[in-house]
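Illustration 12: Lon proteolytic domain-containing protein.
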Amino acid sequence: MFSRLTRPRAVAVCALPVVALLATAAFAPLPFSLTQPGLTADVLGENRGDPVITVSGAPTRETRGELRMTTIEATSPDADVRLGDVIDSWFRTDKAVMPRDSVYPSGRSTREIEQYNTEQMKESQDDATQAALNHLDLNDKNIKVTLKLADVGGPSAGLLFSLGIIDKLNGDGDGDGGDLTGGRVIAGTGTIDPAGKVGAVGGVSLKTQAAKRDGATVFLVPKEECGDAKAELPKGLRLVPVTTLKGAVSALEALGSGKGSVPSC
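Figure caption equivalent — predicted structure in token form:
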């Protein structure tokens, strides 16, 4: 038997499944991670009382300025993220909502993810060392580089590690004792491979906020992420896009000397 509904009642009845879905979504865990600006660390300095970069087999320089690697903080892989959390983060510039699979490898336990991130950091350190020594033509020398940075995982500090090694060994390369940083607080992010190619990392709009908070005036960003970096760029922070380690070094040398061109996003 078919019973004809008036329009108001028809709308109300049709809305019931939508209301039920919204109610369920409000209390059900969602496949997202909430992220925010994380710590930064000066790779030219110390972390928890230990030097981040230790070089043996070659003389090193006393450096001025800072090279700050940047991070984001994310909710743990097993955290329950609710609709209210997501909505709140949408309206804030110091938080971001990211698909959980873009932050953590899927199908792994929390312990497996921690191990994965540690392995990624170790591989990044090895690649950063290789890239820096390649850049300086020092691969045939008996030089050992040790990198130590507690409580940070993943590969995104590679570029800054390489720049730190170069600054400690060679400075600005002019032979006048100048620093690659020019005495500035430089921050940045980017993966690196042994050939010196810089790769994208994600979360750059949050990392620029962390950089500005900790005193940086220049931020090195993988060129392909310029758009993301500009989205919430703090005032007074200059973006310098890079695609290679050589390009990053050249940009810093130009900034320090005031000569030559410095790329911009």
